[in-house]
Amino acid sequence: MTHILQPQSRALSRRSFLVTVGGLGIAVAFGRPPGLAYGADIAPSAQGDFRPNAWVTIAADGTVSIISPAVEMGQGITTTLPLLVAEELDADWNRVRVVQAPSDAETYGNPGFYGIQLTGGSESTRGYNALLRLTGAQTRLVLLAGAAGMLNVPVKELETEPHKVVHPPSGRSLDYGEIAARAVLPDPLPQATEADLKPSDRWRYIGSRTILRIDVPSKINGTAVFGIDVQLPNMLFGAVLRAPVQDERPETIDDAEARDVPGITHIVALPYGVGIIGETVEATKRAKDLLKVTWSTTSRVRNYTSQRLLDEYRAVGRDLSQQGVPAHTNGDAEAAIAGATTVIEVDYMSDHVAHATMEPMNATALVTGDRVEIWAPTQGPTGTQGFAAEIVGTTPDKVKVNTTLLGGGFGRKAEADFIVDAVSLAKAVEGRPVKVIWSREDDVRHDTFRPLEAQHVKVGLDAEGNIVGWRHRIVADSIFARTLPPVFAEAGGHDDVVTEGAKFNYAVPAHQIEYLRQDKGLAIGFWFAVGVGYTRFAIECVIDEIAAARGIDPAALRLELLKDQPRARKVIETVARMAEWDRARDGRGLGLAYSDAFGSHCAQVAEVSLNRDTGQIRVHKVWCAIDAGVAIQPLHIEAMMMTGITNGTGHALFEQINVVNGEVQESNFDTYRVIRMSEAPEIEVAVVPTPGSPFGGIGQAGLPPAGPAIANAVARLTGGLRLRHYPFTPERVKAALEA
Questions:
Q1: CA 575, CA 89: separation in Å to the nearest integer?
Q2: Which residues belong to any copy of the Aldehyde oxidase/xanthine dehydrogenase a/b hammerhead domain (predicted)?
Q3: In CATH terms, are 228-297+361-437 and 306-352+449-738 the same topology?
Q4: What is the DSSP letter of 289?
C-alpha cells in the first residue's frame, strides 16, 4: 500500500483547506482547539494563545506548539513532521514544542492510510508532507496579516525571518509572541497555495544536518514516558492467560489457588482466555501460573504446522495450472518465456518471524460509564477507539486515546489485542484504571507473525541473455483479509501488502505477478517491511542468478536493466564505489542488492565470510546508498538505514518462528534468536538525495536489500551456492554446501 502524496495548487479557506490526491480528501478544521495530548498540556495560557488552526498554537512568550500526527516508535517522526510546519512557518526551531496529536482522525488522520490515524508503512512523511507544509505556509500568512494590522502597513511590505515578521522599509519587527499576544485572527483568513511554499534554496531546516531528534534526550535521561511507564492513581494491574492454540476458548476454569494469591482482586472469564486483576504485577503473574484451564479443541489452527505448510506453499507456487489473483500484468510473461532460449525457474521461501519489540505489549484503560480513556503505545489510535467502543458498548467519540512513546512497533502495535485486554479488564472494575503488561513469552507466542510464504519465479532469457519474460507467483495468507476486509474485497482478493515490492522498475518487456492466498487460519500481521522484505529477496537473488548465467557482473546487469532510471543507477554506482566493488577480498565475498520500495532508492553491498565447517555466515560490513528524494533529515536517514540493515541482517540469518499443530515453539530470546550486538555488521551510509523529487519513506527502506545482499555475497564467495530460504541458519547453509 504505497501512495506518494503530492501537493495540489488549491486555496485554503478560513475554516478549512482540502488537499486531494489520488481520490483521497483531507479536511482540516481551522480555529478548533487541538485538545490535550498525554504528558503535554497545550491549554490556552492566561494571556490567551494565538491558535490560527488545529495544528499550531502560538503563546504570548513566543512558544510555538506544533501537533505531531504520527506516533513516535524510534523512527524520529515527531521531529520530521513538525519540522515541515516549522520550515514553512519560518519558526525558530529552538522555540518550538512538539505535541502528540489527540485521537481525532477527522482532523489528524493520515491521507496515506485512508484518513485514519495510523503510523506505519513508511507512509507518514509521504502522507502528511503536503498537508503540513501548507499548514505552515497558511500560519505564516496569518501572522503576516496580523502584523500588518499592528504596524499599519500593507502586508506586501512584510517579510519573515526566523520567529519574527519584519518591515524592511522602516526597520521595525514583531516577534511571533508579540503578534500572538495582540493580534486578532483576520477574517477571512489569508489563503495559501502551493505557490506560497518556500523554494528549496530558502530552506533552513529541510536538509540540515544540525537538527537533532527531539525524542532522544528524554530517552537518555529517563524522563521519556512509554506505555509501560504509565502510572495512575488507584491503578490495578492485569494479566491474561491465553490458549496455547489461537482461537480456542476456556471451557472450564479452576481458579481456586489463583484467588488465594495475596493482592488478587478479580478473576475474569474472557471469550479468548482468563483475565487476572490484582494490586501488583507480581501477584497477577503468580495467579496466572496457578490457573487450571481446560481449553476447547475446535480451532482449525490445530492443523497448522509451519514447515509442512511451507512445503505445500512451494508446491502451489510451482503448479502453474493453479491461477492466482493478478497483482501486476505487463504483457504475457508465460508466452514470452515459452519462446525463450534459457529459462531460470526457482523457489524462494521465508519462515514466520516475530516482532519482538523491546517494549512488550501493554496498555492502561479506565472505564467510567460509557466513557473510556486509554493510555497506550499504539500505532493506531483510530482502531484503538473502535475496538474499545465495541467492548464497552459505546461510540468511538467517547473513547479518548493518550498515545505514549512506543518502545518499538514494527507493525505489531497497529494491532488491538493488547488494547482489548486492558479495556476488558477495566470494564470489570469500572472506575479504576487497569494496566495490562504482557510477558515476553506471551509476546512471542501470541504475536501476529510475518506471513509464511513461498515464491516461484520463472524468467526467460533470449539467445543474447536479455530478459524476455518474468513471472512471479507469491503464495501466502492475507493480512488485509483479517485487518481490512473491505479493502481486501475491493481488491478482488489481492493483498498488496503481502505482494508489495514484487513490482520492480527493471526494464523487462513482459512481467506478471500473481498472488495465491492460502487461508490456513493463523493470524498474520504487518511486520517491518512486510512483503518487500521477502519479495526483494527473491528478485535480487534472481537478478544475480541471471548475471551468473550470462557471465556478467551483477552490478553491470542492474545498471543495464535500469538504464532509464537515473536515481536507481546513482545509488548503485555510489555504493559500488564505497565498497570498492571490483577489489578482491581474501576469504570474503561481496554481494549487491537494490530496492525502490516506499518511494526511496536504496542499494547495499554486504561483505561476508563463511565457515564451511559449521555453515555459520558472518556479515562484517554493509555499505548503503540511499536516495529518499528530498532528504529532510540526513543524519536521521543514516540512522534509519542502520536500523533497517541491522534488522535485515538479523531476520536473514537468525529469526524464525516454528508452529507445530497450532502451538508456537519459541517463547523468549533463548529460543527466538535475534541478532546480538557482537554480530551486528559495521555500517557505512551515504545519503544521496535528488532535489525536487517527492519525499520518500525511510522507516523501512533499509531492510529489503540486506538479506539478498548477504545471499548474493555467499554465492560469489562459494562459486554459486544459492541460499533461497530465510533464515540462513547454519544447518541450512551446511546442508546446501553438502548437497
A1: 37
A2: 221-299
A3: yes
A4: H
Q: What would the grid cell of residue 336 be?
A: 514470452
Give the Cβ contact number of residue 18 at 10 Å: 14
Question: Cell for 643?
Answer: 536500523
Rounded-to-integer distance, Cα 83 and Cα 317, Å: 46
Residue carrying the nine cell digits 507466542: 445
Report the amino acid identity of residue 467. I
Helices (H), 77-175: 77-89, 105-108, 124-151
350 with 537: CB under 8 angstroms? yes
Q: Are 354 and 657 in contact (CB under 8 A)?
A: yes
Contact status, residue 130 vs residue 694, Cβ threshold 8 Å: no
Q: What are 582's three cell numbers?
A: 571490483
Domain boundaries, the chain: 16-202, 228-297+361-437, 306-352+449-738
pLDDT digits (tens, 9 = 90+) for 34-93: 222 333 333 333 345 899 999 999 999 999 999 999 999 999 999 999 999 999 999 999
**Pairwise CA distance, residues 103 & 132, whole Å:** 18
- Range of 37-46, 104-113, 563-572 with top mean pLDDT: 563-572
Query: What is the rounded average pLDDT of the residues 372-391?
Result: 97
Q: What is the pTM of this model?
A: 0.93
CA distance 343 to 333: 12
Q: The domain at 16-202 falls in which architecture?
A: 2-Layer Sandwich (3.30)
Q: Are strands 164-167 and 159-161 parallel, antiparallel or unpaired?
A: antiparallel
Alpha helices in 319-439 (DSSP H): 333-338, 381-392, 417-428
3-state helix, strand, coil in the chain (%, to 5): 35, 25, 40
What does the alpha-carbon distance between residue 127 and residue 110 come to, in Å, rounded to a whole number?
6
List the beta bridge partners of residue 344: 459
Query: What is the second-level CATH architecture of the domain 306-352+449-738?
Result: 2-Layer Sandwich (3.30)
Q: How confident is the model at residue 30 (pLDDT cuts 50, 70, 90)?
A: very low
Q: Which three cell numbers stand for residue 440?
A: 515476553
pLDDT higher than threshold 50 for residue 630: yes
> Which of 15-19, 385-389, 577-581, 617-621 bottoms out in mean pLDDT, i.e. has the lowest?
15-19
Instruction: State whether residue 526 is helix, strand or coil.
Output: coil
Contacts of 566 (CB under 8 A, 6+ apart): none
Handedness of CA 7, 8, 11, 16 (dihedral sign): negative
Beta strands in 495-541 (DSSP E): 511-517
Q: Which residues pair with 582 in a beta bridge?
A: none
401: three-class secondary structure by DSSP: strand
Q: Is 516 helix (H, G, I), strand (E, B) or coil?
A: strand
Of residues 710, 541, 538, the one with CA closest to residue 609: 710
Q: Looking at 477-543, which runs of residues are DSSP E strands?
A: 511-517
Percent of the chain scored above 90 by pLDDT? 91
Q: What is the CATH number of domain 228-297+361-437?
A: 3.30.365.10
**pLDDT tens digits along 488-497:** 999 999 999 9
